[in-house]
Protein: T-cell surface glycoprotein CD3 epsilon chain
Organism: Caloenas nicobarica
Amino acid sequence: KEFLVEISGTTVTITCPLTEEGNIVWEITGMKPTSQARKYVIENHDSSPTSVNCSLGAKKHEMYLNVRVCANCQELDALAVTGIVTADLLITFGVLILVYYFSKDRKGRPSASAGGRPRGQKMQRPPPVPNPDYEPIRKGQREVYAGLEPRGF
């Protein structure tokens, strides 16, 4: 037979597997048990691992208790968890389908971010604007370069 452990908030209830009537002796590390009933209740359990023994005469049962408790925990049954996961998946697939259809419609439209040029036919680029520092000498501008004389090597 096994112990029955029930957890509710920070309260842990342990039921001894002994079924005979009588005074059950509880031994719990770190605590002084006062109950001699078949069920032992630990109020405000601190989630520390403890060793639990219950005995009646020569019969003795031992258990290592390692439970996590919290004051603000909420229990969810399997149906609630299944509903939450299913709703999340449906919403995610719905958003994916919407994004797919909206992005699919945009492929056929020309975008204005391409510089306003038509995409179908490539146009030749005009030659680059010459740098004014390297312009060729033109008639009427010789005075700008008059101070430059050829050097002899």
In short: Residues 24 and 36 are 5 Å apart (CA to CA). The mean pLDDT is 79.
